[in-house]
Amino acid sequence: MATNFRMIRRRKKNNLHLKLSGDFDGMSAMELLNVLEENANTAKKIFIETDGICTMLPFGRDVFLKNFAISTAASNKLIFKGDPGQKIAPRGAFCINGNHQHQISNCPN
What we know:
With about 110 residues, the protein is of the alpha/beta class. Helix content is about 30%, strand content about 35%. Helix 1 (about 25-40) packs parallel to helix 2. The model has no long low-confidence stretch (mean pLDDT about 85).
């Protein structure tokens, strides 16, 4: 894992809030995947704030998307905030950037 990667977790009611910072590499991707899999069935929504990501490494992005095993129905619980989030958001997830929100379509990323 990138030595400067951090993930701050906070629960608020039935929602989970994750704040990512540092460099997003393959190990960082696996850490995020583990947290999402652990919470996919219990959290109503999972907010992932990505503006703190300094560098989105292509390998980290690929590891995340290729190993994402949560169903499309559960992926619609995911809400990625910030520019880097658009690069890693799987199909079915939502992205918020500024005042715009959109859902990732079924087209390949």
